[in-house]
Write a structure and sequence with these properties.
The strands form two sheets. Strands 1-13-12-11-10-9-7-8 form an eight-stranded mixed beta sheet, with helices on both faces. A five-stranded parallel beta sheet has the order 3-2-4-5-6, sandwiched between helices. Helix content is 37%, strand content 20%. It has two domains: 4-145 and 266-296, 3-Layer(aba) Sandwich (Rossmann fold), CATH 3.40.50.2300; 148-264 and 298-325, Response regulator (Rossmann fold). The chain has 326 residues and is of the alpha/beta class.
């Protein structure tokens, strides 16, 4: 991997080309966005990839495109109500972010194409798609269902934290049990003890980390969740306050003050999702668009946070990151 110092990211926005031939003159397309977490600056930055993919194919928000956002920290019942709002608006496609959004949109709107950005679900095992190559129903998009990633996150914590024996796992029950089960299996192989701590809502984050401290965890693994991603700065601050070396599936976590992030870049994932939506708007049935996985994974380490936690990152680990934050 090539190393580079990460200071800030900027997105270059290029002018959209001539509108795709599949677009109908005078039609204003409507895209629904369903997400079980509130809007915030981090999401808007990541979401630029989605909007850019649409613009480059001639779909411009405010011109021939309207994006209907339904985003808030909500229960499953509330997310279903938000999905119903998008159905009533007769959107052309729904971008559903996270398992709760995907299942709600797929169930309530079988005739509306759904493009998923779901880092927690196996789409074949859950019946959302018939196969990755040919989904066959109204759902396609991006999924990250690699159980071996849990082992990778735990291994990175072992390398960073000397004599690590117990790891707390921050888990959002709304994402389902698959990630937690994978982490438990990986922990047995690595001879680590796990202490699951739940945080269904943002208000549960502080009590969850207090519980991790009471359990004498030596580190914290934060599993993937749209809610955790939305509040990753708060999680980073809490982890540092509780002196818990922490890893999260999003590289941007280290930029927000967390110790380590390992996983896909959300900006790129949303850009991939944007290309799926473009295909749908151009007339391709969702069931004929292959499901994709993230195309690139990156490791980030925040050396300032390591110093605050009293950790010396081993040289072999320092040589591995794509991005090292000084």
């Amino acid at each position: 991997m090539n190393r580079r110092v990460f200071i800030a990211a900027s997105v270059c926005v290029f002018a959209a080309p001539v509108a795709a031939r599949a677009q109908r003159a005078g039609k204003v397309y409507r895209v629904g966005v369903l997400r079980p977490a509130p809007d915030n600056p981090r999401f808007r930055t990541d979401f630029d990839g989605f909007r850019q993919a649409l613009r480059e194919s001639g779909y411009v928000d405010g011109a021939n495109l309207t994006i209907e956002y339904r985003m808030k920290s909500a229960s499953q019942e509330q997310m279903i109500a938000l999905a119903r709002e998008l159905v009533r608006l007769t959107v052309d496609v729904i971008l559903a972010i996270g398992p709760v959004s995907v299942t709600a949109a797929a169930a309530l709107a079988p005739s509306i194409p759904v493009v998923a950005v779901d880092l927690e679900t196996d789409p074949v095992a859950t019946g959302l798609v018939a196969s990755l190559a040919r989904p066959g129903r109204n759902v396609t998009g991006l999924f990250l269902d690699f159980p071996e990633l849990s082992g990778k996150w735990l291994q990175l914590l072992q390398e960073a934290v000397p004599r690590l024996s117990r790891v707390a796992v921050l888990w959002d029950p709304a994402t389902g049990p698959a990630q937690l089960r994978a982490a438990e299996a990986a922990a047995r192989t690595l001879r680590l003890q796990l202490q699951p701590v739940e945080a269904p809502q943002p208000k549960d984050l502080e009590p969850a980390l207090q519980l991790a401290n009471k359990a004498r965890a030596g580190a914290l693994l934060v599993l993937s969740s749209p809610v955790f991603n939305a509040f990753r700065k708060q999680i980073a601050d809490l982890a540092t306050r509780h002196r818990l070396p922490t890893i999260m599936p999003f590289p941007g976590f280290a930029e927000d003050g967390g110790l380590m992030g390992y996983g896909p870049h959300l900006l790129e994932m949303f850009r991939q999702a944007g290309t799926h939506v473009v295909k749908v708007l151009n007339g391709v049935p969702a069931g004929e668009i292959p499901v994709e996985r993230p195309s690139r994974f990156s490791l980030t380490i925040n050396l300032k946070t390591a110093k605050l936690l009293g950790l010396t990152i081993p040289p072999p680990l320092l040589q591995r990151p794509d991005e090292g934050i000084q």
